[in-house]
Specification:
Number of helices of chain A: 11
Helix content of chain A: over 70%
Number of strands of chain A: 1
Oligomer: heterodimer
Strand content of chain A: under 5%
Radius of gyration of chain B: 27 Å
Order of helices and strands of chain A: HHEHHHHHHHHH
Structural class of chain B: mainly alpha
Shape of chain A: globular
Number of helices of chain B: 26
Distance between the termini of chain A: 42 Å
Chain lengths: ~325, ~675
């Protein structure tokens, strides 16, 4: 019991500590590829600290939903993050929810963000909310299908169990194609869910392009800090998911201190590598028009479906 | 326990008669109908719980002189579960009605509404308790007729009369199919008694069983609102007074679910080919998706909610359909899981849909408008209604840790376990149904973000919304009760699941309580903990703890800085409600992406100033969605029958001699046939 509590607290700390770093890393990679020097990788930490110390300004038209939303988004994203193994595969919160619970916990945050976007009464917020709704609704089916392909190959929908089994090579991976399809689908989903190019651009405040930024336009001070942190947490969550589900090697499979230290280092290396990949993608592609995003997410859906088809045709 | 049954039925009878015997004052009449209803539904809740927990069945009967008809009543776990569902929603609605019906004073007879309300509740109760086919049909017909009278409460409006007529026709076409289904069962059993229907060695040939399946599906499907038989639902449900809408949408359509389970699992013995289950599953997926898609485009709050009932019936059928597929392959545990998921969603939907309809009624009470484009900013004017509506919205969007999430999660699990099926086709179809369920879930989220966001947040969009006031206490109590149930059924599923298991066990032939509940009931784990698990108590604790953590971080890093209030920056001009995003604008991208389904048509007319074409005097914009089923299915059918009736008119010439000839010829023919 005590060990479980310590592990949960460690997980919370790791996620909270790592997520600004990943955001900073992506920004740095982008800057370097654009031949800029870019801010330090640690800049997001400074941003957060600064934001927390600023006096928040709340719109006079906004209701309590507006001020409650940052806490709800922060809590739901972080609890979703606790369902994903990071440096140790034996996640103590494994029993609390499987991957569907993760999807719906993230949806809880999305729901309140959409409401908060509408609450201030400005047209920008409403626009962001409306766009977020369509992106979210196209992402989810693709996510469920790819999840199912992964679950089938591992005989479980609990993330910790999946990672643990893969790490110990318990599953019989005769043919990796279902996993590859699911990986591709999940990668597209991750780009869409975390609001990255080519679906959304986190570095813009131009009304024609923004989705996530438009929804949180009216936030300031500690509320904005929590929302920014939550966005970083979501990024960390998806990177951990991809890293550990598809390549869990190096993760600690026992609670021994040495294994956990190695697990932590390997985890940092893997997520950093993925962040670099995302940074490169952001530089290589332009943001898609909103109605072209449909096609991209359609591709993700088909990939997830192919993963399933491959599983059934190759294994039977 | 039989005493309780008498209290239940007696109170309803009192509630039906009393409103007509007392002085015609709105307060007195609302009490005279409301108090008996509260007593009766409370008795129903207790009786339902007793029926779910006691080991024996409660049975009772009243002699009748009509052959084949016997007023027999039986409360087995299945009936008890539906009795509980009806009574819980009925209890909240009758408390709510104490405040709400005064709204009708002067416009409609409060005593008639109260009396019909009791009769309607009573007929629904009898539908699920009846243990005789004839008796069942009488109760069913009463339920349909009484709800029809309630639908046409505001009969001075043309659209209400149209809705009523539409409902009356559809429900009777449905009943015709149900009668055929019962006649087939009668043919196999030789009696209308349910006791004999469910006798296992009844001899019905395979073809007749299939026919019974289809007839029951169409007949009860009409009541349940399965696509494409759903078309009456968005007209009839919103037309009734809101507490009636809550019961029609939340509970009445569930009686059809009850009857389907009764016929398929009880009477037909749960033995059927796989395609029965697949048909139900397919219809469920279609209803879920189309229901939510049409709901998204709707800006009349009550019509929006009515379309969501189509969606949720679809989700319930996904669970039951999956259960039927598993049942036909003898996978009893999974069949039980599918049924359990469907039933859990049934009670959950009854709670949150009734809550949302009562919320819509409160908005109507306070503003007298139904279009959400005319609300706005109501959370400040009506804080409690707002909070309760938000709980309902979160529940229906299946967000953790509320009740909608738990039951949808169970449906997901049963669909995911399809890999145990023997055929590749079904192995692939069930996950696709899960993907459709995921899409449905997110579209519902978008829809309720729209409904709540546009109605309750930002600035008021009309004078009515600006002057709205919080509704009276009984209405708040009714909504609060349902909101509490939504939270409890979500956070503590271990309370409900053992009861549901008792319903499912005799139908699927296996008890799965030990399998579904793991860790002393603190987690749900269908099949095993290794495959999947969910613990909503843990998740809710986690959410609360982490929200506190967020608050703690804010305090530690930033101290207790005072918030500053300032107007929203709107590019230098003063913010007006006209700048806010509208519901139409909100769903525009969704309409465009799914234009194949909606077939939208938009029309923009501009009237220019005489002096210059650079300035518009007036612009008129309207957009429509193609009602596909009405246009391509119902309109041709109606046209066909109208033509047929026209042709047949030649034999009805108005001459008495001619009619006597018809009778004579018929008699001769019958005599010839008899020989």
């Amino acid at each position: 019991m005590l060990q479980a509590i310590i592990l949960v607290l460690a997980q919370v700390t790791v996620l909270l500590a790592v997520s600004p770093f990943l955001v900073g890393l992506i920004r740095k990679v982008k800057a370097r590829l654009q031949l800029r020097r870019g801010a330090s990788v640690l800049q997001p930490y400074a941003d957060l600290a600064k934001l927390f110390q600023k006096q928040p300004v709340i719109s006079t038209t906004a209701s309590w939903v507006f001020t409650a939303t940052p806490y709800i988004v922060f809590a739901s994203t972080l609890s979703a993050g606790l369902l994903v193994p990071t440096f140790i595969s034996l996640n103590p919160m494994n029993f609390a929810g499987n991957i569907i619970a993760l999807v719906y916990l993230l949806a809880l945050g999305t729901f309140f963000l959409i409401l908060a976007g509408l609450d201030a009464g400005s047209a920008f917020g409403g626009m962001g909310s409306s766009r977020e709704a369509i992106v979210a609704s196209l992402t989810e089916p693709a996510m469920i299908l790819s999840i199912f392909a992964i679950a089938l190959t591992n005989g479980s929908t609990n993330l910790s169990t999946i990672v643990h089994r893969t790490a110990l090579l318990e599953g019989t991976v005769t043919d990796p194609s279902p996993q590859l399809m699911a990986l591709a689908a999940l990668f597209i989903v991750a780009l869409a869910e975390t609001g990255r190019v080519p679906v959304d651009n986190p570095a813009t405040h131009l009304e024609l392009t923004m989705i996530h930024e438009a929804m949180i336009l009216e936030y300031s001070g500690r509320y904005l800090a929590l929302l920014e942190w939550a966005a970083g947490l979501k990024l960390a969550l998806f990177l951990s998911l991809i890293a550990n589900v598809f390549a869990p090697w190096g993760i600690a499979t026992t609670a021994a201190p040495a294994a956990m230290m190695i697990g932590l280092l390997v985890y940092l290396a893997k997520t950093a590598a993925l962040a670099v990949v995302i940074g490169i993608i952001e530089c290589m592609f332009a943001k898609l028009r909103l109605f072209r995003v449909t096609d991209l997410l359609g591709v993700a859906f088909i990939l997830g479906l192919l993963g399933l088809l491959f599983f059934y045709t190759l294994r039977s | 326990m039989l005493n309780l049954l008498w209290i239940l039925l007696g109170s309803y009878v009192v509630g039906i008669l009393l409103p007509f015997c007392l002085p015609r004052r709105a307060e007195v009449q609302s009490l005279s109908a409301g108090v008996p209803a509260v007593v009766a539904t409370s008795a129903g809740v207790v009786l339902g719980l007793l029926g779910l927990t006691s080991s024996g069945f409660i049975t009772g009967s009243l002699a009748s002189t009509i052959p084949l008809l016997a007023f027999t009543i039986r409360i087995d776990p299945l009936a008890a579960f539906f009795l509980l569902t009806i009574s819980l929603a009925g209890l909240a609605a009758s408390i709510y009605a104490l405040g709400y019906v005064r709204h009708f004073d002067g416009r409609a007879s409060v005593s008639t509404i109260g009396s019909l309300f009791n009769g309607f509740l009573c007929s629904m109760t009898l539908v699920v308790l009846a243990d005789n086919g004839f008796f069942f049909l009488i109760a069913w017909e009463l339920m349909s007729l009484l709800s029809y009278f309630l639908v046409v409460t505001e009969h001075e409006k043309t659209e209400v009369r149209y809705a009523g007529l539409f409902y009356l026709i559809m429900t009777h076409v449905g009943t015709a199919f149900i009668i055929v289904a019962f006649l087939i069962l009668f043919q196999g059993a030789g009696s209308f008694s349910f006791e004999i229907f469910r006798h296992p060695n009844q001899s019905l040939p395979e073809g007749m069983r299939t026919l019974a399946f289809l007839m029951a599906l169409i007949g009860f499907g009409t009541k349940a609102g399965i696509v494409p038989l759903h078309v009456w639902l968005p007209y009839a449900h919103p037309a009734a007074p809101s507490h009636i809408s809550a019961l029609m949408s939340g509970v009445m359509i569930k009686t059809a679910i009850y009857a389907l389970i009764r016929v398929y699992f009880d009477f037909l013995g749960g033995q059927f080919p796989w395609w029965w289950g697949f048909t139900v599953l397919f219809l469920g997926a279609t209803s879920a998706l189309l229901g939510v898609m049409y709901a998204l485009m709707e800006h009349d709050l009550k019509r929006l909610l009515a379309f969501h009932s189509v969606e949720n019936i679809g989700i319930i059928l996904l669970g039951i359909g999956a259960g039927m597929v598993f049942q036909s392959y003898g996978l009893k545990e999974l069949a039980a899981l599918g049924l359990l998921a469907g039933l859990y969603h049934t009670i959950n939907h009854a709670m949150f849909k009734a809550l949302l309809f009562l919320g819509a009624g409160s908005l109507l009470y306070a503003t007298h408008v139904r279009n959400i484009e005319e609300y706005g900013g109501l959370l400040r004017r009506m804080p409690w209604t707002g909070v309760f509506f938000l709980v309902g919205a979160v529940s229906i969007s299946a967000l953790p840790p509320t009740n909608g999430f738990v039951s949808e999660w169970l449906v997901f699990q049963s669909l995911f376990l399809s890999y145990q099926l023997p055929t590749a086709f079904l192995k692939l179809m069930l996950p696709i149904a899960a993907a459709i369920l995921a899409l449905t879930g997110v579209l519902a989220l978008a829809c309720f973000a729209k409904a709540f966001g546009i109605s309750f947040l930002a600035l008021a969009r009309s004078t009515q919304a600006r002057h709205a006031e919080e509704v009276p206490a009984p209405m708040l109590v009714g909504m609060g009760l349902l909101a509490a149930f939504c939270v409890v059924l979500g956070v503590a599923p271990m309370v409900m699941l053992p009861l549901l298991d008792r319903v499912v066990a005799p139908l699927a032939g296996i008890s799965i309580e030990g399998k579904v509940l793991a860790m002393d009931g603190w987690a749900l784990a269908p099949v095993n903990v290794e495959f999947s698990s969910l613990s909503t108590p843990a998740l809710s604790l986690l959410l609360m703890a982490l929200a506190l953590l967020g608050w703690g971080l804010a305090v530690t890093f930033g101290g207790r800085l005072r918030k500053r209030r300032y107007k929203t920056w709107s590019c230098g001009i003063n913010l007006t409600p006209r700048m806010e995003y509208t519901a139409t604008g909100f769903v525009q991208p969704i309409k465009r992406v799914f234009s194949t389904v909606y077939q939208p048509t938009a029309k923009l007319e501009t009237e220019f100033l005489h002096e210059s074409r650079y300035f518009a005097k007036r612009r008129h914009f309207e957009f429509h969605i193609e009602p596909i089923f009405e246009k391509y299915l119902y309109d041709p059918l109606v046209a066909f029958f109208t033509t047929l009736a026209d042709r047949l008119r030649v034999i009805q010439a108005g001459s008495l001699h001619l009619y006597l000839t018809y009778i004579f010829v018929t008699l001769i023919l019958l005599l010839l046939l008899a020989v």
